[in-house]
Amino acid sequence: MGFRRSIFLSIVPVALMSTSVATAQPENTGNYRPRLLVTLPGHYNTPDGAALGEDGTIVLSIPNFNNDHLLENGVIKEPAPAVMAMIDTNDNIATWYEFRQKDMHPDTGRVGPMDAAFGPDGNLYVADMQVLWDGEHKSRLLRINVEDGEPVDVDVVVEGFIVANGMVWKGNTLFVTESVLAHTPAVEAGEKKPPLVSGVYAFSLKELHGEPIQLSPYTETGADDHLVVRFRSSNTVGFGADGVTVDDAGNLYTSIVEDGVIYRTRLDGNDRAVETGLFASADGMKSSDGIVWNPVDRKIYVADLFQNAVHSVDTQGNVSTLHINGDTDGADGSLDQPAEVLVRGNDLIIVNMDVAWLTPPGVSVNTAVDSPYTISVIRIQ
Asked: By the 8 A CB rule, do 223 and 205 touch?
């Protein structure tokens, strides 16, 4: 099915949430204490998205956004290339796909793989976030074509995002979050920023196998027909819609990373938004980055980027904190700025992005980018 038609969009209002800075809290050492799953090699300095294969392997996005920071501070002498890595069922890690020169954006010369998800066609779809190098609608949606289980090459399937970020498949429809639909004007020091507008796009599998889609830039009076829902948030960090997941009833959930809330969108038979409302918020959930629905216990799991925490949310929107810890390098498996979560069997896999320089001072418990670079795991069943 295509999405090239007029739609009615309502903007969800700014969540009435506290925007106070996160502070370190005592470590929760109960039943959900994390342990170390994988210590990444030094040239995987910034992990982010994670996609689960049918065989239990995990393909991990390694955008290496920490390169410039580490170069400036003399930690490394040359940048590490962006890659897709694989964690096998024995938790060994190796490069799965190394992006080639032709895969790079022609204007920036770079690629920034974020969230990833295997499609019903067996190929891997990857959000390419270019905003750190060029904010003028350069971000893309890529497809890594897979043959006989091996990555072959890359196609650009959608262009025109500002911040392509999270994604989830619902049948033959792919939902992708746009963390910044339009840049807000600069303000003077001390002035309040205007709300940030972000949203979620939807694409059918059929059209993703056609000519590359060029998104129309968003304005307050017009939006691309692929946009199904949009949000207003506090603009404290400058990133809105981030994680996205779908429950067993077909409802779409979107996390707003800077406000620590989750919205639920009810969809019609064509995967268009019918109703969107605030689903989950709590004083203890300061940030909501990556989210994932677990059909076994019917809970949503949440990566809290700001306070080194992970939470669960039940079907009534009640939030429980599984684990929280203070500033750490993550060497013992402790959380180190978690950005993504993934359920594999009885385990919650947690990707520690460790990008302290990316958030304004005082917002995140994490204060420094430090090795080792790690993936944590919590047994949830």
From this structure: no
CA distance 125 to 339: 18
SS3 35: strand
Instruction: Kindly state the tokens that stand for 225.
Output: 């027909």
Give the other-Cβ count within 10 Å of 219's Cβ. Answer: 9
183: closest CA among 243, 136, 134?
Answer: 136
Residue with token string 């039940």: 314
Calculate mean pLDDT across residues 213-226. 95
Residue of 162, 104, 106 lying closest to 137 (CA atoms): 162
Residue 22 DSSP symbol:
P
DSSP 8-state code for residue 108: T
What is the Cα–Cα distance from 232 to 278, expressed in whole angstroms? 12
What pLDDT, in 10s, does the model give residues 33-47?
A: 999 999 999 999 999
List Cβ neighbours of 75 (8 Å cut-off, separation of 6 or more): none
Residue among 224, 205, 167 nearest 6 (CA): 224
Q: In this structure, are residues 305 and 297 in contact, taking their beta carbons and an 8 Å threshold?
A: no
CA distances from 258 to 10, 96, 267, 296, 312 (A): 20, 32, 25, 29, 18
Of residues 308, 333, 302, 328, the one with CA closest to residue 37: 333
Q: pLDDT tens digits, residue range 92-130?
A: 999 999 999 999 999 999 999 999 999 999 999 999 999
Question: Whole-angstrom Cα distance, residue 343 to residue 346?
Answer: 7
What is the spatial distance between Cα 129 and Cα 65, in angstroms, rounded to a whole number? 10
Q: Give the pLDDT score at 18.
A: 34
**320 vs 246: CA distance, rounded Å:** 19
Rg (CA), the chain: 19
Contacts of 369 (CB under 8 A, 6+ apart): 45, 66, 69, 70, 354, 355, 356, 357
- State which amino acid sits at residue 10: S
The helix/strand/coil state of 194 is coil
Going from the C-alpha of 140 to that of each of 68, 117, 147, 176, 224, the distances in angstroms are 21, 15, 22, 11, 15
pLDDT value of residue 87 = 98
Name, in order, each residue with C-beta under 8 angstroms of 56's C-beta and a sequence gap of 6 or more: 89, 344, 345
